[in-house]
């Protein structure tokens, strides 16, 4: 993720040179190591989806995406969080690493996976 442009638009540091196309779905996520509490051994890596974007403009070196679904917010998740996808506001976290209430916190450098939507998603 390159930059948050406004409350709903994010610039991605990949573009047509990287195979990104209009209509692609970009998932912004964070990766966390999962450790065994008894041994301290790393068991693997888990991904936490922060927000999903629909790519609507593509240039050679970057693309722009609009939010259409989020999973992680600074609020306590409920079952409705997972059953009701919403267009979510995004912002860069402040110095203390928090975003405003009901706002998804993303940071430049967060990992992004770009996928072609399936026929069911279009």
Order of helices and strands: EEEEEHEEE
Strand content: 35-45%
Structural class: mainly beta
Number of strands: 8
3D architecture notes:
- This protein is mainly beta and 122 residues long.
- It has one domain.
- It is 4% helix and 43% strand.
- It has 1 helix and 8 strands; from the N terminus they run E-E-E-E-E-H-E-E-E.
- It has one helix spanning 79-83; strands at 3-4, 9-12, 25-35, 42-58, 63-70, 90-92, 104-106, 111-115.
- It has a 6-stranded antiparallel sheet, with no helix packed on it. The protein has a two-stranded parallel sheet with strand order 6-7.
- It is elongated and about 50 Å long.
- Residues 73-88 and 92-101 have low confidence and may be disordered.
Offer a concise description of the structure.
This protein has 1 helix and 8 strands; from the N terminus they run E-E-E-E-E-H-E-E-E.
For this entry, give a set of tags.
122 residues, mainly beta, 6-stranded antiparallel sheet, two-stranded parallel sheet, 1 helix, 8 strands, 4% helix, elongated
How would you summarize the topology of this molecule?
Layout: E1 3-4, E2 9-12, E3 25-35, E4 42-58, E5 63-70, H1 79-83, E6 90-92, E7 104-106, E8 111-115
Parallel strand pairs: 6-7
Antiparallel strand pairs: 1-2, 2-5, 3-4, 3-8, 4-5
């Amino acid at each position: 993720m390159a930059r948050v442009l406004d409350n709903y638009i994010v610039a991605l540091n990949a573009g047509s040179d990287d195979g990104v196309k209009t209509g692609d779905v970009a998932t912004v996520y964070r990766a966390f190591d999962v450790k065994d509490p008894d041994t301290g051994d790393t068991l693997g890596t888990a991904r936490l989806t922060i927000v999903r974007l629909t790519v609507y403009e593509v240039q050679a070196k970057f693309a722009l995406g609009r939010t259409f679904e989020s999973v992680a917010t600074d609020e306590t998740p409920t079952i409705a969080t997972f059953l009701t996808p919403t267009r979510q506001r995004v912002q860069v976290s402040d110095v203390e690493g928090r975003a405003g209430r009901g706002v998804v916190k993303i940071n430049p450098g967060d990992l992004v996976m770009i996928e072609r939507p399936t026929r069911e998603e279009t």
